[in-house]
Fold:
Amino acid sequence: MARRRLGRGLDGLLPAAPPASERAQKNNAAIEDVHPGRMQPRGRMDAAALAELAASIREHGVLEPILVRKRPSGGFEIIAGERRWRAAQQAGLKDVPIFVHDLGDEAAFEAALVENLQREDLNPMETARAFQRLVDDYGYTQETIATKVGKERSTVANALRLLKLPKDVVDLIETGDLSEGHGRALLSAPNVSSMKKLARTAVSKGWSVREAERQSRRLARADGAAAAPKKEGKSTNVRDLENRLSRALGSSTKIHESGKERGQVRISYASFDELDRLIDKLT
Structure:
């Protein structure tokens, strides 16, 4: 059976809605009977934005029901809508509207992920971790994730690459000081220390993504040049011959070896008069 496609919305993911009579029996729950979900991909909630939502809910109520599933121990576990539930608590509501659906862990996590993606509620690192969880826990490929969330495979791949960043840089992306594009650009830096230093500079100087990428590549090139094996210097015998020839001719002389017992002797001169003098000495 083909997998359901999250990118088309929660309607394509969830079972058909129950009859109106059944919905009426389930459309509200005491706020203390609703509990945060284990499948929530979001890690942070902005306090100021939550307070604004609480003020709106205090005025208008919770306009969109919270998607939940029943808990074995009683009450309900939130699948999608935890932010609305927390704001309702702040607003002093005693109950909240809910939709109850019988979903397993995989489907519940998919629903939570797509709900946040569609609302653009996840920061880039939360999205990356959610994609990685689909890989680790459910064996999804990047192609499968892309199909299910309605994005290009390259978008999924780029999101997962952010997980290679050091924690200091991840924190700056999660707080919004750096963008996802900055994070990807910093991955070109040669090592973790360089990534951290460039990230701090990017924030303090307000670098664009392009500038962060340029600086990262510059450091990578410099690091590569430093790591490249150095050519062996001239032997003591060759340097001695160069000195002897220079003294004998009265002009700078260099020997360039091009193979076993083969090479070139290069004599420098500063004027035609000096060249005439050298020719006289050599003939």
About this structure: Residues 6-157 form a domain with the Conserved hypothetical protein from pyrococcus furiosus pfu- 392566-001, ParB domain fold (CATH 3.90.1530.30). The longest strand covers residues 253-259. The chain has 13 helices and seven strands.
